[in-house]
Every structure is written in C-alpha cells, then in structure tokens.
Amino acid sequence: MTRILKSLGLALVAMAALGAMMASGASAQIQATTFNTNTNVHEAATQSVSTIETSVFRIVAGGVPVTCEKETYTGTLTGTDPNPTVKPSYEGCHAIIGGATSSATIETHGCEYKFSATAGSADKFTGTAAIVNCSKEFPSITITTGTGCVVHVDEANNTAVNGVTYENNTATKPTDVTITLNGTNVHSEVTGGLLTCGTSAGTKTNGTFVGKVTVKATNAAKEQIDLTVMNP
After folding, report:
1. Range in 38-42, 68-72, 114-118, 165-169 with the lowest mean pLDDT
2. Up-side HSE of residue 204: CA atoms within 13 Å toward CB?
3. Residue 222 and residue 34 in contact, taking contact as beta carbons nearer than 8 Å
4. 163: Cβ contacts below 8 Å, ≥ 6 apart
5. pTM of the prediction?
6. CA atoms of 70 and 126, how far apart (whole Å)
7. Do residues 143 and 94 make contact, with C-beta atoms less than 8 angstroms apart?
8. How far apart are CA 1 and CA 139, in angstroms?
C-alpha cells in the first residue's frame, strides 16, 4: 500500500529538528519544489517536547552520542516525488566521550536522506529511512571528535532505518505533518578505542536516531497551505 505526502503548493518547510534517513522501498510522495530547514538541536536527555514546534534530536552512532547546535536540510523537488530527499549539514556539534564533552564535526560527503511512508491509515503512518547519493570516494556520513574518534555512518548498510512515524495535524488549518524519529538500527563503523571514543572500535548495528519535525507547506507567495500524508 503506497502513501502520498501531498501538497498543492510550491514549497515545503520543515520546522524543528530532523536528521532523518529514509528508505527506498516505499512511496511517500511530495508535490513541491523546495524543502528547507534551519533549526536548533537539543539534548534528548534534557529537552522535553511540549509542542510540535519544539524538537528533540540526538544520534548515538557506534555508541558515541552526538548533538549539534544547528542543522540545515535543503533539497529541490519537481512535481510529485515518490521518494523525496534532503541534503543535511551540521554546525556546532559536540560528543560525550567518557562522560566529558568533546568537540565534533559531521561531514556529509554529499550524502542525502531519503523519505518514505509504508503503512498506515487515516492520519497516522509508519515508514523507514535511508542514506543515499553519497560520493563514491567517501560513501558515508563521517563524525570526527576532538578526541580523535572517527565514526562512519555508511550508505550501504543504512537502507532501512526503522522507527519513523508520520501524523497529520488536522485540528487546525492549514494542516501540517509531524514526523517522529525513533530509529534503533543505525549501522556504523567506529575507528578508535575506549580512550578516544568511549567505546570499542568495530562495526556497530544498534545506533539510535531520535527527533521530531513539523513539516509545513507554503505556496509561491510563502503562504502556508494544507499538507497531508494520504493513501493514493
């Protein structure tokens, strides 16, 4: 059963934190030309979600928890896209290594996040996520900490990150969509050891990705219009 994320407008704007990686085997569809976000990120352990505009984002790749002060997602869509993608970028990041805070950088190497919704009805749907379109030279998102730890979140093994849900917010008009991330199967490769990473080196398969985003649609005049996930 396919699903459609549908808007009659020209632009989609994601408000709040999203680092979503989405999967290719389904068919969430967006009709728009742009998709952009620019937002602050907060520690999942200390920030509670009180409204859909307030976000919680945290990735723990290879046992290395990382948060960023700013993340931006941009992309261009033409017509109706069955698997829309966004390009992420991250600033002001830090990691927690052995209980201490360390600086961190995230290099995306051209990688994008692909969206899909695979099941559901009425106003609630579920989906998965994938990393796609990374450069051939560096086919992964790379996290490097100030302690010398390096974590690669690779494209090849992150084609179906779980725990993605969509909910149409129809109580007020124009409608929008909340996407919640509770991924628990992020695949990564850790280079370093206990002193530099706070965890052992090697392949990890149970990384987590937690966040919430509100997606809103606007027309050419930048006026908000209805956006919903729906059956085709």
Report:
1. 38-42
2. 23
3. no
4. 181, 182, 183, 184, 209
5. 0.71
6. 27
7. no
8. 31
Structure tokens at 185: 């199967």
Pair 25, 118: CB distance under 8 Å: yes
Amino acid at position 168, single letter = N
Query: Whole-angstrom Cα distance, residue 25 to residue 68?
Result: 30
> How do strand 34-40 and strand 11-17 relate by DSSP bridges?
parallel
Is the per-residue pLDDT at 129 higher than 80? yes
For 3-63, strand residue ranges (E) read 4-7, 11-17, 30-31, 34-40, 58-61
- Residues 6 or more apart whose CB falls under 8 angstroms from that of 199 comprise 62, 63, 64, 190
For 46, how many CA atoms within 13 A lie in the half-sphere containing its CB?
4
Alpha helices, DSSP H only, in the chain?
194-197
In whole angstroms, give the CA distance from residue 110 to residue 31: 23
Spatial contact of 142 and 151, defined as CB atoms under 8 Å apart: yes
Measured distance between the N- and C-terminal CA atoms of the chain, rounded to whole angstroms: 9
Tokens 């290719």 correspond to what residue? 24
Select from 137, 149, 134 the least CA-distant residue to 204: 149
Encode pLDDT of 170-202 as tens digits: 898 888 778 788 889 999 999 998 899 998 999
